[in-house]
Structures are given as C-alpha cells and as structure tokens.
Amino acid sequence: MFFIIETDERPDGYVVLSEANQWENWVGRVTPQVVHAEVRRRLRSNLKHVLVGLELKAALIDPHENRGVDGRPMLFESYFQNLIQEFCVGAVSVLEGLGSAHWLAQNGLDGEDAPAVYRNHWRPALNAAFDAAGDYGLDEAVGQTLAVRDKLHQDRLGARENIDWHSFSYGGAFVPASCAIRILLQSEAEFIPATTNLR
Question: Where are the domains of the chain?
C-alpha cells in the first residue's frame, strides 16, 4: 500500500516536500505589488496549493519515466498520462495567474474590477517579467505546454485528427511544462521552499 504522508515514518510512501503556506512568500514576491491586495491574496491562495500539487505529480512522473531499462513501472500507463495532463493544467494555472498579474501591473491596472486577461496579453507579460531577453526559452516552453494542454478540449471532436492521451508524453508535455515552472522559480529563488522537487 502506498501512503502520502507528512513525515517519513513509513518508507513506502510519498513524504510531503512542502506545505502550501511555504509557497506564499515566493508567490507574493513574484506578484507585482501594484496589484490590488485582495487580488494578490487570492492569487497566493490559489497558486500555493497548485504548486504543492505539482510537487506530488513530479514525484510520481519522474521516477516512472527514469526508472531504467530493468526498472519496474511505478504507474499504469494511463495514470502516467493523466498525471502529466494534470501537471500541464496546473502549470498553466501558475503561468496564467502570474502572467495576468504582470499584465495588469504593466498596464497600470490593479485588477480590483476583475478584468479578463487573455492569453495574447498574459503570455508576453509573463515573458517580459521572467525571461525578457529570451535567454531561458520561457516563451517556447509556455507555447508547447499550452499546445498540448489545449488538446484536452473535447468540444470539437471532428476538427483535429489526434485528440488523444498520447500527446501527454513525458518529453512532449511534462518536460516543457516543468521547464516553464523552473524558469519562473529562478526569480526570487531564495523564497522557494528548500525541499521542493520543482527546481
């Protein structure tokens, strides 16, 4: 039996790397202070839980993929793809939330009136804030993550040839999504929980 636990009392479980509240400082540091206090509070409240969820998913995805030729699988293949899909959805939430906050700040808005911030706005704002010179490849990683995440939509089944779970592969989906998150984590890195596996 596999246990997800808070301490390392059981050797056959996942030990919690960080708790949600440990992510609050980092989210707060990378969110522009000109954004309305209540908007910042909500963003911290949402993203801290998403980041903890990403830690757990990464802790299952990586060992399964990198288990070696003779290694025993950790996950049934559909679970593996589901976890990658969930990692991509969570990563997009982080990218979208921080990108939207930076777009508001860059346009002299505080977000109190809850304007919709669209992808073509938040994506360049995210790049300007976290990879302005393009040295780290953030825009490419975000683009790949969005492209594969969008395959989740099932509302136009006849519009695309391949709407399937095989798109949620380790290299095609998890790698760019985790790369995008790691690029963000380079900013204010001293405020990231020391034990996180998202580095």
Answer: 19-191
